[in-house]
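Progress against Task 2.4 (sequence-to-structure conversion) is shown through the following example record, which the project officer requested during the mid-term review.
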Amino acid sequence: SAAAEELKSQLDQVQENYENALSHVASLNETERQYEVLKVKYRTAHEVFSACSECQNCGQCGDGWKRFGVKCYYFSTDTLNWTNSRDHCVEKGGHLVIITSEAEQIFVNSSGETHWIGLNDLETEGKWMWVNKQPLTETGVILWYKRPDIPDEPDNWKYEDPSGENCVSLGNESGHTHSWFDSSCSKLKKFICEK
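Structure tokens generated for the chain above:
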């Protein structure tokens, strides 16, 4: 009948409108995701640019050191435990790296290797401190590794070392080099100094 045809036509129009709305929502979600990605890229670029502009008249870092922003970095080729790495950096006139921005994290991660960084909870379990005694909670950048279905880092795993994991490396032996891992301080790893 004519009424049934009219109703079917209206239902078809509703269905089409609904599908169009779903398509617009998906498009908006993708646009929002791209916007968030761009925001992170902009913030990183801004940090790099700011660091560079602050350092137009900086001197040279010295042999074996690389400049980024206003700091100089030394990427070791040998491996030491965390304590010896810390002491070696002091002997070189610096300290184990203290990561204070996403831009700095990207720079120190550029080698794609695992390195000791200047973060530990040796004094008080669970209270993470940088080698300059600044609490992790005050530096603004926290980049622990996050797992999909088991506890995230730091996990203080005691299977290899009964004293637990009290020192932090950028990356681990499984190839996850973009995040931080608590690790046994006695392990031998490369390390990054800064001055």
